[in-house]
Amino acid sequence: WQDIWWYRLLTNLFNYSTIIIPCFLLVFVIKRTKYLERAGRFFNNLLLKLFIDGRELSSFEEINMKKPAYNTSQNSSATLSLFSFENKFVATTVKLCFYSCGLLLSYLIWGIVQERVMVYEYKDNTTGRQKGERFTNSQFIVFANRVLAFVVAVVGIRMLEQPCHRAPFYKYIYCSFSNIMSSWCQYEALKFVSFPVQVLAKTIKVIPVMLMGRVISRRSYSVFEYITASMISAGVFIFLITSEDGPGSKSSDSTHTSISGVVILIGYLMFDSFTSNWQDDLFNKFKVTSLQMMAGVNFFSVLLTWVSLMEQGTFTEALSFASRHPSFTLHILILSITSAIGQLFIFATIANFGPATFTIVMTIRQGLAILLSCIIYGHQVRLSGGIGVAIVFASLFIRVY
């Protein structure tokens, strides 16, 4: 049963529910009984950050507003101002190059190591066996990545003296859960499709992002945006149908695994689309900083994945695998470091240059990731598949323009 991906998925969801359901029952009871209005000082201090946002603190001023209000814009500019040149153009250019190189380097390394961990076997040097074993616990990789990201966020908040409380803390659990699921789907998909297919399929998420935007934020989109989204979908479809790992391949086993991979990738797209839209809503509604968002989301991600791993008894299995394969431990460490650094560069790029510039950089990164994967791991892309790739990236650049 552990070898069946949908069984692992259902098991994970059941384990997460043991944390999420009690949490929301607590929220319901607190709000329904108006407990905060009658609670003592200790419990107010403890529960205030969980249930009350920064706009509703007037009645709790004596408890939570001892320090002056935090100025988001000033601290953000202080955080992100890495260069101070007299020539503004030179300063902007150097800063853009720095952020772009940081993004590209972090996520290109992350992508290469991700494929190595999930697709290829590790040989046990202690026993001398020729046959290796693959690491199949995607959830443990998510846990390891989130631990380091949470530590980095907390250290950043302390160093910059930002307040921990901005939005009700329980609000982060929504996007934390979807973030965990999107990451799990991302790693799990590599068991069924090649890395180039996975990377290219990610570009299609503009469609579910638009759909989620209409549902969550009531946003409207132009006809031009729907046209470019359709072009991206067409390019991805051409690449998938002509890929050696796609449904058009000769092997019946490849067809089966490709169908499983496509289902998992659809799950990734939906969960990831919800995550970005929910985070955007928190940014706009509660004016949280990027470090506060990073800390809140990763806190619940660590909690949920750790509880799930312990309940399934797979945490010790993953540690045992790491002890047998020191190179695996090194790969997990690299994944965690590049993921945490990459998150910092993402927030800094969007804050300084906007989402359009960020999209350009990430589009370049996706193209380079496919190229590096083909060179390092020997993936082959047919001419028709190359046309599909060209349509996708042309659509992305037209959209940005």
UniProtKB/TrEMBL annotation:
Domain of life, per lineage: Eukaryota
Topological category with respect to the lipid bilayer: Multi-pass membrane protein
Listed Pfam families: UAA
GO biological process: 3'-phosphoadenosine 5'-phosphosulfate transport; transmembrane transport
Keywords: Membrane, Transmembrane, Transmembrane helix, Transport
Family designation: Belongs to the nucleotide-sugar transporter family. SLC35B subfamily.
PANTHER family referenced in this protein's UniProt entry, alphabetically: ADENOSINE 3'-PHOSPHO 5'-PHOSPHOSULFATE TRANSPORTER 1 (PTHR10778:SF13), SOLUTE CARRIER FAMILY 35 MEMBER B (PTHR10778)
Name by which UniProt lists this protein: Adenosine 3'-phospho 5'-phosphosulfate transporter 1
